[in-house]
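Box 3.1. Reading complex inputs
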Amino acid sequence: MSKADFVRVMFNDISHKYDLLNDVLSVGTHRLWKRSFVKRILAQRPGTALDCATGTGDIAFQLKAGIPGEVVGIDFSEKMIDHALERAKTASQKVSFRVADIMNLPFPDKAFDVSSISFGIRNVENLDKGLSELGRVSKAVYILEFGQPKSKLFSRLYFSLLRLYVPLFGLISKRGDAYEYLIASSEKFPSDQKFLEIFRRNTNFKTYGSIPVFGGIAYIYFAKD
Ligand SMILES: C[S@@+](CC[C@H](N)C(=O)[O-])C[C@H]1O[C@@H](n2cnc3c(N)ncnc32)[C@H](O)[C@@H]1O
């Protein structure tokens, strides 16, 4: 099974508990991180946005609250999109959701003022291609992703705690491997300057930046002109 198939099936399988598990697993902090991520994007005053790997649509709905034009959310997990569409029925913000793969985005060049991706880029099968697609379809790219804390001591403590705590949630979701995957993929995913180097190599913007969140457990990356 390819990494893409593994990831898609896994997110289909946990989609019904995804929002609940996010809240429990992060003790609610994912909401604060997402809010701060969206605030930075909205400060650029984009007129349109594409939220990739949107999951159940958290970022897309928050973006739409501050964006006058079209906001689109895409994900390659059909079940995650089903949940986003279900939320859209009662949401005050009008967002369009559709199934699509980041590796081959069905949009013309520079179709959106901004593209965003929150806790998704780590999962794409080919990071170079994923980043180049995000850069192709938009005039600015914002990424929120797990990384490794800057302090070695904090990093060791954080990943040890995660290894103790996270498998419990695998039991609840009946996909223990999903949460093992979360730790393994976060522990080795390039972060901060290493990520920026890859980001620069695959896109063509004037300004790049990296902002650590909570000591580097996660990072906000951006690229814009
Ligand atoms: C951890 S969830 C993040 C969901 C949401 N952005 C959030 O922050 O809560 C990762 C999402 O990435 C999606 N994903 C992974 N690879 C993808 C790809 N190549 N194309 C589209 N979606 C993808 C998965 O289906 C999953 O919904």
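In summary: Residues 74 and 98 are 5 Å apart (CA to CA).
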